[in-house]
Amino acid sequence: MQTLYSYTLIRWFALCLVVAAGPALGAPKVVASIKPLHSLVAMVMAGVGEPRLLVRGAASPHAYALRPSDAAALQAADIVFWTGHGMEVFLEDSLDTLAPRAAHIDMSATPGLTLLPLREGGTFEAHADEGADAHHDERDMHFFLDPENARAMLTEIASALSAADPANAATYLGNAAEADKTLAALESTLAQQLRPLAGRPFVVFHDAYQYFEARFGLSAVGSITVSADLAPGAERVSDIRTALKTLNAACVFAEPQFDAARVAVFLEGTSARAGTLDPEGAALNEGPGLYPALVQALADGLTTCLSAAGP
Ligand SMILES: [Zn+2]
User: Fold this and answer.
1) If you average pLDDT over residues 19-24, what whole number do you get?
2) What is the Å distance from ligand 1's center to 90 Cα?
3) What is the number of other CB atoms lying within 10 angstroms of the CB of residue 288?
4) CA 306, 211, 201 angle in degrees (round to 5)?
């Protein structure tokens, strides 16, 4: 009788602990590196907590420098989600020191992820914006732009969060399943939207799109590495015009930080039109809605320019 009484008491006490540690109090401190990944983590954490984003605003993940507030967030983190070697150069060598307590989740190791090698050589110029360090690894790290990869990442994010915070596992798994349905539906509407654009030749300034192209049957014919800040010399401009003519490019896609007048200089004397694509969500607000908005905006940017270019 005495034993049964103690057992009941212990169970009751344990239950109180679980209730006290309930969703809000038990929320782990989570940091995510770049906007698209942060968005997927935010979807899975809905109702439990909000992840902290490192590369905020219009900053480029390829050339980011950590701020003191970022270092403090990393120091306190329980989990850090990052895409892996080759993207967030600012984390590469220092993650163990910066986030000593945290589980580090390298999203490029997600089971079932499609990973493609960097597309370089021929009409694809080297990725100068990604820094010399980025290229000890020859994988193309823009894998998150394939919605199928994003769906695989949702599962991985839910299991990492559940391992760190078992009390909220059911919420994480339910959110991931819900987000998976949303992305699956979006993927089929995008496939329909983009189908008429198959085979229209285009050129990009930042070769971020091969996962998106492969998923939706599109194909860039070349990439040109152009700086948004430095004006190119006359010889370089003339080489680029020649390349655009040779490639018969219908559209040239710059990113939001490029000045329209600078882009127009490259197009003079060619039949290419100018378009804008924002592969890392620089112009979008962070949060759970960013990822769907990001891939929809890519599809719309491609459609606007390439459908006007006509077959
Ligand atoms: Zn990029």
Assistant:
1) 44
2) 14
3) 20
4) 30
Are both 163 and 210 inside the same structural domain?
no
For residue 87, is it within any domain?
Answer: yes
Measured between its terminal Cα atoms, the distance across the chain in Å is: 85
Q: Are 159 and 10 in contact (CB under 8 A)?
A: no
Same domain, 161 and 113: yes
Cα(18) to centroid(ligand 1), Å: 43
User: What's the CA gap between 250 and 172, in Å, rounded?
Assistant: 44
Q: Is residue 13 domain-resident?
A: no
Residue that is written with structure tokens 């559940």 in the block: 162
Q: What is the pLDDT of residues 267-301, one digit of tens each?
A: 999 999 999 999 999 999 999 999 999 999 999 99
Domain that holds residue 151: 27-128+139-188
Q: Are residues 166 and 200 in the same domain?
A: no
Quote the number of domains for the chain. 2
173 plus 232 within the same structural domain: no
Q: Compute the distance from residue 209 Cα to the ligand 1 centre, in Å.
A: 9
Distance 163 CA to ligand 1 centre (A): 30
CA of 61 to the centre of ligand 1 (A): 7
Distance 82 CA to ligand 1 centre (A): 14
CATH code, 229: 3.40.50.1980
pLDDT at 38 (0 to 100): 98
Q: Quick one: tokens of 35?
A: 């906007």
Q: How high is the pLDDT of residue 231?
A: 82
pLDDT tens profile 31-58: 999 999 999 999 999 999 999 999 999 9
Quick check: is 171 in a domain? yes
Quick: pLDDT tens for 155-190: 999 999 999 999 999 999 999 999 999 999 999 999
